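Sequence in, structure out. Go.
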Amino acid sequence: MKEQTIKKIVRLWWLLLAAPFALILFCTLIVAVFAKIPSFEELENPKTNLATSLISADGKILSTYHIENRIFVTYEDLPQSLIEATIATEDARFYKHSGIDMRGLARVAVKTLALRNSGAGGGSTITQQLAKTLFPRKTTKSKIPGAKYVNMVSIKLKEWIIAVKLERNYTKNEILTMYMNAVPFGSNAFGINAAARTFFNKKPADLTVEESAALVGMINKATRYNPAINPDLSLGRRNLILRRMKKYGYITRHECDSLQALEIVLDYERQDHNAGLGPYFRDMLRRTMNATKPDKSSYHNYIDYQIDSTSWADDALYGWLNKNLKPDGTRYNLDKDGLRIYTTIDSRMQKYAEEAVREHLSQTLQPTFNRELKYRSHAPFANDVPSDRIAVIMNQARHWSDRYAGMKKAGCSEKEILKSFDEPTKMRVFSWSGKGYIDTVMTPNDSIRYYKSFLRAAMMAVEPGTGKVRAYVGGPDYRYFKYDNVRQGRRQVGSTIKPFLYTLAMQEGYTPCDRVVNIPYSFVIGDDVWTPRSTDKEQYIGTTVTLKWGLTRSSNNISAYLMKQFGPEAMVDMCHKLGISSYLDPVPSLCVGSCDLSVCEMVSAFNTFPSRGIFTGSMFVERIEDSQGNTLSTFSGHKREAIGEETAYLMVNLMQGVVNEGTAGRLKWKYGIEGAAGKTGTTNENSDGWFIGYIPRLTAGVWVGAEDRQCHFESTASGQGANAALPIWGIFMQKVLADRTIGIANGESFIAPAGWNVNLSCTGSDDDLSGTPGGTTPQQEENFFE
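Output:
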């Protein structure tokens, strides 16, 4: 063969060899010039939806606001096993290439395309996968032959360019961190932080080697290898990851064999908007932060307008999202901007509060109520409720339902809609047993009655002196009962208001041991005469009793006596001083709790007593940071002197009598709580049960009742505050005191004011009577408003 011919062959060979690379280079240049490649600024700030985290006072993530449940972590938060499993599986040459792995591409070309070996793995590097995740592909449809393949090549080349840009501007560790924050893991978990919490209830740093392998195995095929959905496939995939880690020297053969023998042990909870600790708190906080400046024309009640206007002016958290804008002038978005909200909630106390509500309602109170319902003709409504009143309540419920709204929007007639409420339908409804729900068939009308038969509860706990809210439970189960009974709900307070009247007396110079005559007292109201009904036993009427006895026994007679001395206006003024913001009608019946107030208001007001007379508004958040950790706002409680320290201490002594000798006695003999003070409350027909109490370092209040006041216990023994609400407080406080990490001891004492010399020898027991009747009744039935 001639030399010239040989040279031509060689040139042709090199031309054929170089042509694909030249074509790739040419296409890349074309893409780089004409395609929309992210700028450096866009690479620095990719449009990734970051979840806003609600962080507890003890450093735990309570829950999130999110569209994509993604919480950013730093490289230091990633365990070495997770890094090694990721590299071994997704990109073994990660630290050796510059964004595009030519050796990997060659492997794909030969093994996957030529030899049809689908197990050879893909050619995309971690950096390329990151580029694809941060800047998703946009698919286009075209009828032009071959357009789909041209578009696919263009997209791939674009990802290569982005990958190279990423490699030039970030370190390998930064790229790996961005990757682990970006990839989806299924079950609404985006990024490794959310995945670790969803599947193992851990921080990423606490993941074990086998847990890291299981999570890495889900990358790219999150549903197929989801251990909660396909445990067998997930186990096989995890073991494959472990073998790859062994192949690349990250673990030994012995470690690999040992780890492969382990099962995948999940602590799984899908992180949706119903999950996590404090769902009612999270919902309340969203409403508060999203509040707009009050517009008088939008309010039916002027008092509510005044309250919200005051909150807008004085509360920095109220309407925060509308008061604080980003540097570019746009609003912060709780679901996308990755804010970090440091709350006052203590995750341990929150857990104990939710457990206490669940335990008492599910195990004791609801079963008792269900037994009563069996003997009612129009359950769950009481037998004395008129049928026309029941019809009004049911009609309101139908009109407020999603079914009614949906059918109305669809153009259905009223007759068609009402007919649908009588048609049996498959549905999933709440249940205290089993999984928390049951699948059944019932008519929508029956489902309304079914849900109205469940007792609701609300509880809030705050820290004396600071007003920091440590626990917040708005109902029995957020998934099925969305209404927040802590702040949204207002219910009749009954005898829990009596301490405010006694506070007025203490401030005006009375002491707990001062004596009054126990007889009925009447009030002239226009042409009528009103006398609070006395529930004191006949043998006590006409005796001389101490004020402490009066509050201990929740005597309506003694409350009426004090109201006669000071008048309704003075009591209203005292309630507002103590922190009640709602409007109160200055009428004599206020002395026995005729008004409707929220749990939040009542607990905040009671918190003034262990706070030595200083009222501190409820504080929910300590600070807010942006996604980079920059502080945007800090918060502090609003404090003011409400009553004197001496008056506050006298009230502590009075309410300790309620626990030691009166209606709250079971706190001592059943729950073993020492040194507590508090007050029970029960309203007409046992519709509402209350208990609000405190120890030196914690105040908490509980309300229990049905959605409608017409659904209630017939038996006062079952429905009174001492039986309905107090046990939740007792269970909660037992758990708090038993947790040594919280640091609150049982039996801590309240500190008396300096120079204290008031005689407090009376106990509130029958020994305080001028002539002690036979037979003491320390667990006397709770009195209530009539």
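Check: Residues 30-35, 772-786 have pLDDT under 50 and may be disordered. The CA atoms of residues 51 and 450 lie 36 Å apart.
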